[in-house]
Amino acid sequence: EEPHGAAPVDFLQELPSCRSARRRRGGSQERRPALLGTAGSRGAAARALLRDTGELPDRPARERPDCMADKRRARDSQQADTEHLARLEKWRRTSSKSLKKALSEVKGLSSYLVLWRHDIRSIEGKFGTGIQSYFSFLRFLVLLNFIIFILMFSFVTLPTIISKYGIFNSTIAYVSPKNIDNICTIYEPNGNKGLVYFYTYLKDLLSGTGFLEVTSLFYGYYLIDAVCISIMRYNLPLAYLLTTFAYLALSFLWIIKRSVEGFKHNLVHDADPFQSYCNKVFAGWDFCITDPNAARLKHRSLQYELQTDLQEEKLKQKIAERSMEEKLRIYSLRVLINIIVIAILSGCFYSIYRVTVFSQENSNVSIRNDTRTDLVNLLVQYLPSMVITLANFIGPLIFSFVIRFEDYTPAFEIKLTLLRCVFVRLANIGVLLFSLWSQISNCGNDKCKPCGYNYKLYPCWESDVGQEMYKLMIFDFIVILAVALFVDFPRKLLVTHCSWKIVQWFGHKEFEISDNVLEIIYGQTICWIGTFFSPLLPAIATVKYFIIFYVKKIVLIHTRKPAARPIRASSSNFFFLVVLLIGLLLAFIPLGVSIARIPSSKACGPFRNFNTSWAVIPDTILQFPTGLQQILFGMASEAFAVPFFVILCIIMFYVIALDRAHKRVVEQLREQLVLVRSDPTF
């Protein structure tokens, strides 16, 4: 009796793709006769046929679809052939083999250097891939902020420090202001002088004023126009602006790269639900797992994935069976809920605008020697941050409550709640900046006539905006720690040790993925906006997210319970990155306005000799040779932009047509696979 393992070999010969390949290679026979003999001889003959037709290329023995005996014979044959090669060819093959082995070992070792690798894998096994995706997302932001900090420190902060302390025999070059009124160059930071109380340092640390205002943390510290080291001249204003563009471009490209990977997973999953089940059931297990704990974690991970798929299919079936009356009731309820959401957003925006105007007008009224007045001044300075945090806290609670009545799938609930909460949080930052700009550009009674901005209230407005971003970052971190210490852990103790019905009704809180993702996206948007005004803010964000990882891990393990409705990691990862990309694109708007539209401060910063921060670019281009100037200005003109746009449109249409052709091919291949599955004899 013939073994069953021989059947697929004959079957492969009958596939249309195999016959087509033989025709393309010039084969005269469209169909070869069936191979006779035993299963082993038929398998060997089939492999020889594949090798003759080019289907089985000359590749390493371990990669061949053969049994172990055939692999050993192939290896011995390859080694025997190597003995007859020339020395150069033999050395080339040996070197290539050694290099591949070394790269494989380095890749294996590098996996142990991945940050929080064991912690995230443990979380995945205990709580599912949806929650694991949040911690992986947090790890990505830690790495991103660390690289942004390296960029800003290397190209902006380090050259300034080197020049100020004369390291490497460096000198400082200052350019005298031209056509600038002397009244615009007056800037006296409120540094601490004389006897200073401890609480003053604490207040300065929280608000970014006092001793922090004159450090490299803020924009006003960078007064140098150029750094001269030997014969090299380092243009600090140009480096400052280009580094800003570099960290924004790096963030954009990195997020796009990770989003495309997530989009591929979503595309594969959504294409065929049956294929998703097959992948998990038949190909989801990792046979390299030998540790019982790791195996248990993998079991739980697969269980959560299958549970999520089944839950979503059940909800889709329920939605498909709705009657017309149910649909009308649900749609009416959704319209009403969206009206409520718009009203809440409008109230938040108006409150933030009024509070910011009040804070900016009254924060400078203080008596330094009166402790009570200093405390009141600190509260006034933090008033916008507190109102924004309050809106960010109340808004998501209301959105999470009302979305339960809209009857969406769990994945779509997270997406819609995230979009609403992201909009309220990011729009709150936008309203804050709009309020600041309205005060900076408030030119009533000719306040802006000498300098182009309100120089009396904001002699160095970039540092003031940096302080607001710094306060938002610090206050957000304090709120996250306070919620963990004074809300989550006391609730856990009460539910565990108190038998009151009202306490048990609250119960253990679930780990809300949308709220937690929203927290870090909100903080990251603040970091992107604030880095231009506070170059070392990414370092604070890196430390903040590093601590938050362990805080959230402890809170998750000891105070939270797994979600009642599991969330799929693939869709979550992709959507988290899309929301993060929205935050980055929104960060472009205030940065673009600050760089290109608002006049730069004439009393501080590297751009004090330019009308705007962007003016350093054309000023640098004017120093280039005439031919290069004409090329660059030509690329920035409409004569270049219109043909470039037309070419881009042609390329886009070509890619769309190619994509449609690929989809048709994929559909044909899928039909062939269905045919193979339904009629294996054919």
SSE layout and pairings?
Blueprint: H1 7-13, H2 16-24, H3 39-53, H4 68-83, H5 87-110, H6 117-127, H7 129-164, E1 170-173, H8 198-207, E2 226-229, E3 232-235, H9 236-271, H10 273-283, H11 292-320, H12 324-362, H13 371-402, H14 410-440, H15 461-497, H16 501-506, E4 509-510, H17 513-530, H18 537-559, E5 560-561, H19 569-596, H20 616-621, H21 626-635, H22 638-678
Helix pairs in contact: 1-3, 6-7, 6-11, 7-9, 7-17, 7-18, 7-19, 9-19, 12-13, 12-14, 13-14, 13-15, 14-17, 14-19, 15-17, 15-18, 17-18, 17-19
Distance between the termini: 22 Å
Count of the domains: 2
List unreliable stretches of 5+ residues: 1-12, 27-43, 49-57, 365-372
Element order: H for helix, E for strand: HHHHHHHEHEEHHHHHHHHEHHEHHHH
Helix content: 55-70%
Tell how many strands the DSSP assignment holds. 5
Largest sheet: 3 strands, antiparallel
Q: Indicate the overall shape.
A: globular
Q: Which structural class best describes the helix and strand composition?
A: mainly alpha
Major sheet: order of its strands? 1-2-3
Residue-averaged pLDDT, rounded?
A: 77
Beta percentage is: under 5%
Task: Please report the number of helical segments.
Answer: 22
Using the CA coordinates, give the radius of gyration. 32 Å
